[in-house]
């Protein structure tokens, strides 16, 4: 199950890359910019601004779950079934209602990846698995990485590492670069903001470091969560002292994904304004550099 394949990306690893976005994530980060990626199943997004008054195509396609009340479309998402997603895909002429998620075979995905191999060869690019959490679909991740390596394509994965180790291990021998989130090392704050276990993530980091996996750590800096000097020190210390990581990226919080929550009829529980803290970003870069890491601020 995936929700996008993005070609010609230059932000998800070296060179020109094809990014395969797999659905499913075991975390519930308050600030998640891709909430449509969390569920392993299809999601329905609805933008009432695009909905045509009086149109009955969607209610006719799924009458047990979609209806009109006083000319407003009402969607009972909990009643939608897998067959409805097939019927609703491309049903809406204005894309007011859209279905996120589709199943594709490894063969079909690899056909799209191999299409751009000349660009990878010239630029040092390749394939990047992203999400959601790619290792939530461990067999698919392993197959895509293995077949890419067999084709001479550089491989990378963007991961939060919040999965059992047995989901990660089969892919390691086919992985050239891991771009991994290190959100916090404080267990209580991590649990409060992500509904997950910091120790699971940190333990996976330790195991990967012991296997000499090339890693770049990514730190999303989130107001009230980890956008403070104490948290940055703790994260940088773990990355440098325990893992021996050489590269770290700090990602200032932004709000570009807020509208997606409205489309999914979900509450947004993080800050309403982007992070505006140039002095803190300068501190993060300087402190990480002092710890022997190459540090970047990524917008």
Automatic annotation (TrEMBL):
It comes from Buttiauxella agrestis ATCC 33320. The keyword 4Fe-4S applies. It is an enzyme of class 1 (oxidoreductase). Residues 11-291 form the Radical SAM core domain. Coiled coil: none annotated. Its cofactor is [4Fe-4S] cluster. The keyword Nucleus does not apply. This is Pyruvate formate-lyase activating enzyme. It holds the Pfam family Radical_SAM. Signal peptide: none annotated. Its EC number is 1.-.-.-, 1.97.1.-, 1.97.1.4. Belongs to the organic radical-activating enzymes family. One of its GO terms (molecular function) is 4 iron, 4 sulfur cluster binding. Keywords: 4Fe-4S, Iron, Iron-sulfur, Lyase, Metal-binding, Oxidoreductase, Pyruvate, S-adenosyl-L-methionine.
